[in-house]
Design brief:
724 residues, Nucleotidyltransferase, domain 5, six-stranded mixed beta sheet, six-stranded antiparallel beta sheet, 17 helices, 28% helix
């Protein structure tokens, strides 16, 4: 659909007078599949509580083999060889003036309205990113279009595209999970990602972490979410539930194992996808009051709302089994009428033992079985890898989900051209289970594929049960959700495990494995639960900061101060002094913040040569997901995990031109006589408003300062998921 036609449809969508339609979007960005759920309402409606039946889910994904019935889409993308002409903007709070142009909005726009927050729908899609947003179905390397979702398996297995598979990207989320179990997957993905960066298809975003490869994935997540948002917008328009005045709010789910920096990367990618597509509202290039929640808690909220098996005071486990991660949490029921989720009984846990690893085990087993047939297939123009890959959709759609290996532990896999054991003279112990064109899989084969992962899922649940029982809780229900949760083999395995566990521990009650009532709930419980929690947030979660924030500032170099040790001071010719850059923290990890919180003013001073054409002050905000001491130089060990979180600019050129700022005479410093200069001193007033950090610039410094600039950044990822 062209942008013009889409715009026309938006304008034609019925709009109830001047009332604004609000759309709550829940995002379950999974390792292998993604789902989007939503709820809409108009301002002024007396909607206090919503229920699972009120939530809708996006469908009609391009190239959906189920003809529009799938309520999730593969988390895959496939790049062309033609680099994407990306926007050069760099700031996370506002554009970099060197590449986007800059004017001081505070004085130039309206002398009587000093610097308000820029609250408006995101702009129309960036034309420089039309390669990402173009919905063309062209598939080969002559097309610049990004393939995504169901387009990837369709082009690979059915349309047989000539596009180079080395540019196919999946399981991106693994790069944000630093666990032993993701190590192998991350090592496999890293050279693919580095090659994409080398060919300028994605960028290295400069996030330097020794424990994670965050810098490799932010563009990829943005590119994928941009496609998701474009389709979501079109679907909502087609359903008559979106117009160009709609206000879109987002709830993003994260694994329990996510670090704070991983959540931040996902948050930043989400904000950029909104900017690219125009779907959603940004304030100073940031998502406004983004809501984050863990995947198990979102699933628990959804399942609790549709359950008739629980009463107030009950304790239950939710196990969200996805394609990459399996997360489990234990909750209590706070009240009934309606049921309300209570506190987490014990710390959540998880493992990277999701359904995608079944695919890896199947592929590995098949390649091993066919290893000695490689010469035969290559002679006929095939490879065993391509033949096994062609059977992956069959394994994904049928054997993995619908085969119960306890009841039917055998299957045959179609391998065209395979010579059977009889034709090759193999009998008895030498037989490999080959028929002409088929490989037979038996009980031992299915055990190799399934059991290592089924056991690990059971151990995740076992840890939750043991922790809850140790606290004197009776856990009588384990709710299973997630795409992997629909596997008949996993369900049988867990039912046997729970019966054995109850017997071995000596429980006087049974533990029931509770399955969703509808098949679609396996894959929509997380995204739907996120919407429910956004509208009906929990009370009582401490607003505990789990990150540290500070501004980059220059200090007079003091070699005896521990924060300056081994730093690299720079001579400032204006002041004739050695200066060093440090991070001046204002928010420390572990601080408790009210929903409305205000700090003491931070005084900032900037110097400029008298012949500078502009007086443009830049403030750079840093974030760290570890505890760090304030006023340590940028490269100090204390700041090893500090990352730029955003920057903004304050232009005082007009005040200089009006004669309101005058040069300061040259003074003497450590290294002799300085130079005449402009000195600008102002205060930063920092305020927390919900899950946003608002920054006011007041000039001049002191009690008579007036607001000349306002900026805002989302700090949702800095709190515990679920914080309202």
């Amino acid at each position: 659909m062209s942008e013009e036609n889409e715009s026309e449809r938006e304008d034609d969508t019925p709009h109830l007078g001047s009332r604004i339609r609000y759309i709550l979007i829940g995002i379950d960005y999974g390792t292998t599949f993604t789902s989007i759920s939503y709820f809409t309402y108009f301002d002024g409606e007396a909607v206090t509580t919503i229920y699972p039946s009120d939530i809708a889910t996006i469908s009609n994904w391009p190239e959906d083999p189920m003809r529009g019935l799938n309520l999730h889409v593969p988390t895959e993308q496939w790049y062309s060889s033609i680099p994407i002409n990306r926007s050069p903007t760099t700031g996370r709070i506002e554009p970099d003036p060197e590449v986007d142009g800059f004017s001081s909005s505070s004085e130039e726009e309206n002398e009587n309205e000093p610097s308000r927050l820029r609250r408006s729908p995101a702009p129309r899609p960036d034309q420089r990113l039309s390669q990402i947003l173009d919905s063309s179905s062209a598939d080969d390397d002559s097309s610049p279009d990004l393939l995504w979702g169901f387009q990837c398996p369709y082009q690979r297995y059915i349309a047989h595209t000539t596009r180079d598979y080395r540019r196919h990207v999946d399981r991106v989320k693994l790069m944000l999970l630093n666990t032993e179990h993701t190590k192998k997957g991350r090592e496999e993905l890293q050279p693919v990602f580095e090659d994409l960066i080398e060919n300028q298809l994605v960028r290295n975003n400069g996030i330097q972490r020794p424990d994670l490869d965050c810098e490799l994935v932010q563009d990829m997540i943005t590119d994928y979410l941009a496609k998701i948002f474009q389709h979501t917008r079109q679907e909502l328009i087609a359903r008559g539930e979106y117009d160009n005045k709609s206000c879109v709010k987002f709830a993003l789910t994260v694994p329990v194992m996510f670090s704070k920096i991983s959540s931040l990367v996902l948050q930043w990618a989400l904000g950029e996808a909104i900017r690219v597509t125009g779907f959603g509202t940004l304030t100073n290039r940031n998502v406004d009051n983004l809501f984050l929640v863990t995947e198990p808690k979102a699933a628990a909220t959804f399942l609790l709302g549709s359950s008739k098996d629980l009463t107030a005071g009950a304790t239950f486990v939710v196990c969200d089994c996805g394609g990459g991660t399996v997360d489990a949490s234990t909750f209590s029921v706070a009240r009934s009428q309606p049921l309300r989720l209570g506190e987490e009984v014990c710390p959540p846990a998880g493992d990277n033992c999701g359904a995608s690893y079944l695919n890896e085990n199947f592929r590995r087993l098949m390649l091993e079985k066919l290893r000695d047939e490689a010469e035969h297939f290559e002679r006929n123009g095939n490879t065993i890898e391509s033949l096994v890959d062609a059977q992956m959709p069959n394994f994904e759609d049928h054997l993995k989900r619908n085969r119960d290996i306890y009841k039917n532990p055998s299957a045959r896999i179609y391998i065209p051209g395979l010579r059977g054991d009889k034709r090759q003279g193999r009998e008895g112990q030498d037989a490999k289970g080959f028929d002409d064109n088929y490989v037979w899989l038996y009980q031992n084969d299915f055990h190799q594929i399934f059991f290592p992962l089924l056991d690990r899922v059971a151990r995740v649940i076992q840890g939750q049960l043991e922790a809850a029982i140790a606290l004197g809780k009776e856990v009588k229900h384990v709710f299973l959700t997630g795409g992997f949760g629909a596997s008949l083999s996993l369900q049988s395995h867990l039912q046997k495990f729970l019966a054995k566990f109850a017997e071995e521990v000596g429980l006087s009650y049974e533990i029931d494995l509770v399955l969703p009532r509808h098949d679609q709930d396996y894959i929509t419980a997380v995204s739907s639960g996120a919407v429910l929690l956004t509208r009906n947030p929990e009370d009582g979660i401490p607003r505990l900061a789990e990150t540290t924030y500070g501004f980059l500032t220059k200090q007079l170099y003091e070699p005896d101060w521990v924060g300056h040790t081994n730093g690299k001071p720079v001579l400032c010719p204006l002041e004739a002094c050695l200066m060093i850059e440090v991070i001046d923290n204002f928010l420390e990890q572990g601080d408790i913040l009210d929903s409305k919180h205000k700090w003491k003013p931070l005084t900032r001073t900037h110097h400029f040569p008298v012949d500078d054409k502009t007086l443009l002050c830049e403030e750079v905000l840093y974030v760290s997901d570890t505890t760090s001491s304030s006023e340590y130089h940028l490269n100090h060990e204390q700041n090893k995990n500090a990352q730029p979180a955003g920057n903004f600019f304050v232009d005082f050129t007009k005040l200089r031109n009006q004669g309101k700022i005058r040069p300061k005479g040259a003074g003497r410093g450590q290294k002799g006589k300085g130079k005449a200069r402009y000195e600008i001193t102002y205060d930063l007033i920092l305020l927390v408003d919900g899950r946003n950090l608002k920054i006011e610039v007041r000039y001049p410094s002191g009690q008579y300062g007036k607001i000349v600039k306002v900026a805002q950044i989302c700090i949702a990822a800095s709190f515990k998921p679920g914080t309202s």
